[in-house]
Structure formats: structure tokens, C-alpha cells
Input
Amino acid sequence: MRLSNFYTKTRRSMAAQDSKNAYLLEKAGYISQVAAGVYAFLPLAVRSLQKIETIVREEMNALGGSEVIFSALQPKSTWEKSGRWEDKNFRQIVYLDPEADMTFGATHEEPMTIALKQSVQSYRDLPVILFQFQTKFRKELRAKSGLLRGREFRMKDLYSFHPDEESHHKFYEDAAKTYLKVFERLGLDAYRVKASGGVFTDEFSDEFQVICETGEDEILVNHKTKTGFNKEVEDKLKETDKKKLERVKAIEVGNIFPLGTKYSDAFDLKYLDASGDRQSVWMGSYGIGISRLLGTLAELFNDEHGLKLPSQVAPFEAVVINLTSSKTGEKIYSDLTEQGVEVLLDDRDEMAGTKLVDADLIGYPIRLVYSAKTAQDGKIEIKERGSGKVTLVNLEDVVGRVQKLLS
RNA sequence: CGGGCUGUGGCGCAGUUGGUAGCGUGCCGCGUUUGGGACGCGGAGGCCGUGAGUUCGAGUCUCACCAGCCCGACCA
Output
């Protein structure tokens, strides 16, 4: 990709803002605010979000999931049937078009359950594991912290349907393991913590939390086992348990819920077992905030010059900046592109300083600079954004070196 | 939903006791520059958040509303 053909622009001046992720992502040109808690995702953000989604999708497929895209618009009656509309906490976060009696999807337990009534009759039809990537709408009373708590956001949600509690429990634990793997692949150190089920279930749920000073959750964790408890369930803990735990601030990046038969019973989703008896379906739901993950990564990976997202989620893996009038930059750009490296050529008619400052702000993991200085010895400079390490390499070795750094 | 602060060219801001709006940056043109947002000259760009009032006259004063940010309550 050539920067001259890529829709993006960094901003020189920004209003002071407490949220680091919103400030950096907006200044670097990833996102643009539309309203409180509502952001447009610009090309840089889209590339990062797609990479995050790809990692999540691979793991959901490995878990046995089938990808779907359900509708975001849902009839209000859906929630009335499950009884959830009676819950004031639920009702107040749902966007509603009262004329059409339609709601803007906040979650999908009910629609999924309704859909399964058509396809599940026998124990032979179970389990069913469905997931989707979708925009969710939640009327947060107070949107804040940039991408960490929005009113419109990207989310992966997965729903599992099982013949009994035991098989559900087994899947639930597999899902928890998969979640930890997803966060690890994204470069995040996640803790599995017990929390309340909120408006989803009366049971405990499991949250996946990433320690971060600016997070809005408070959790009690054991650093050895990478487990802990949300502060909201603290009063249920024994004193002896508490002593071993450290209290930290964190961002919730995922949450999984054992739902039991709450929704399947509400919609009468049943199946016939091997002996011909009608049985309730056991359910679970499993969410990962995709756009919140981008906010979390921005919150954690940055310095005074800008973003430094890990290469597996950065919009591009490398940038080429040519400060000479030769065609060397073009050559390196096309060589890297041919080898499958996601590289951007900064071919703008801008000053060297502008290109270097923008490179740090946007946070390309690898920066290649060809200048009169490096050209003297037939070399090019490689700078790693993460560590700040600078090396000079021969032109013919660039591709190999970049590939090695990215592997 | 309570409390505080803020709304003025694309973005960031200033605007005195009321007199019809300015700076920085970005943008366009020309020239000089070229390893950390460089400089000179010349330009374009504003219903001063919205609506009512007070006044000869409102960016400025009054009231209401709307929006954004922050704190709290709430929250997969």
C-alpha cells in the first residue's frame, strides 16, 4: 500500500482528553468520534480490527463454532417473551424504535434460541455452537474511556447449546482455555476472574481481565494462577482467600456465562433424548469485545511518541521511508510486498520530520529509512518500534531481516 | 440519572466595560528547504451550538434547550 493512496491523516492538534486510547487512536487517525461513545473506524483501525477478528475467528473455528451473522434489528417482543424486558437494567441499555417496535441488537441469546427451535429436535442435533462478529448497541448512561465503553461497538459473541449440564460444562472450560489463548495471541496477559452474571444469568460468570491502571474494573488476583475475583463478588469470599490476592485495576476484554436452561425454557427449546424423553437444552454465551480490544491494546502499548501495537495487530507490519531521490524505496517496498510483508510506502511529498513523527505516532512495528547517510555504505536503517532498537543492514538483506523480525 | 466544566474557520484556541471576529495549525499557489511536525511571500475558509429575550446594537448579558468532556450512580 502506498500512503498517497491510503485514506488517513494524523492530527497535529487535539483537545486534551483523559482517555489515552481515544487520544492516541484519534490523533494517529485510526478513529474519529461521532458522538459520546460512538466512533467511526477509519482505514487504520479497520485493518487492526480485521487482524484481531482473524485471530478470534481462527480460535472460534478451532473450538467447533459455525460463523453466522444474525440481524442487529430485533422485534421488541423477543425480549418480552424471554422476560428480560421486565428487567429495568436491561431495558435501559437497549435502543428502541417505538414506532416499529424494533430494538437495536444489544445481545443475541434470545434470537439464537428462537432460531434453534427450527433446527434442533433430537439429541443428534446437539451440540450447536454459533458465533458472529457484529456491531452491538447499548445505551450506556455514561459512555467513557474511548473505545473501552461505547454505545456502539464491535463484538464477537458465541452461543453454545448442549444436551445436558455435564457436556455444557466441558465445553465451557474448553471455551475458557480458548479465550486465554486468544488473548495471548493478541499480546495480552489475561486473568480469568469470577464475577456476577449481571442481566444474563443468576449464576457466576467468568470474566477475562487485563491489568491496566486506567481500567474501570477492580479485581482481586493471584498472579501465579492468573485467576481471581471481581470486586463485585468480594463479599462472598473467605478472609483466607483474600489474603493471597492483590487488588488491581483492569479492563474486561471477555466474559463467558453459563446460562443453564433459562433461555431455552423461556422459548421452549427442547429435544428428544435417546430414550424419547423431552429434555431442556443447556446453554452458554461467550463474548469478546473486538473494538474494546483495540482500545485496550492502545491503552497498553504506547509511549510519548505514539502507539506501538504488536505486529500481529498493527495496521501494517512495516513502513518504508525514502529520504533520497533514488528509486531504492520503491524497490524495497515492492520486494517486501512480493514476499507477503504488509508494508506501507510513505510516498508523500512531506518533510523527513513529518514522516518520522507520523511513523512513531501510527506505530508501524518496523520502520525502514533509506537516506543519503545510509546510502553511502549501501545500507538501510531498520528501527523496531517496540524496543527502539536501530540497526543498519545491507540492501540485499533487508527482506530477510524484516521477515525474521516478524516471525 | 445527579454534580462540575466547555461549545467561536477542518483541528486546537483567544476575544477586555456589549460596537458586527482574530491567532496557531492544517489547506491552496510560488520559492527556498529535506533525519524528528523547517522558513518566506501571497491566498481561500466563520449563521460565534440552537431558540427565545434585554438593547439603537449581542461571540460577549438573561432564560431555556441541545451537545461534548470529567466525577458519581449504573453497567457482559
Notes: Chain A has a mean pLDDT of 94.
